[in-house]
């Protein structure tokens, strides 16, 4: 009788171990997928940072040229007597 009880307990324990092994393997696969996605997102983020740096530089040049144009127009207008 005791032997049957022990066998039943071992059977249940083996089933639980099997379930936990499947869960761990599933989590491992999911972590691998997350790591791959994370590396791709990191690469895309680096690309976006470089593009933003380039855009920032372009905008600085544009603002400088715009300000230079406004100042030049002001001097032109003063020389031509447009502002009296």
Name the structural class: mainly alpha
**Secondary structure tally: strands:** 0
| DSSP helix fraction | over 70%
Q: Quote the beta fraction.
A: under 5%
Average of pLDDT: 94
Present the secondary structure layout.
Layout: H1 2-80
Description:
The chain is built from 1 helix and no strands. The chain is rod-shaped. The chain has one helix spanning 2-80. It is mostly helical.
Quick description:
Residues 24-58 form a coiled coil. The chain crosses the membrane at residues 61-78. With 84 residues, this protein is mostly helical.
Name a few traits of the molecule:
84 residues, mainly alpha, 1 helix, 94% helix
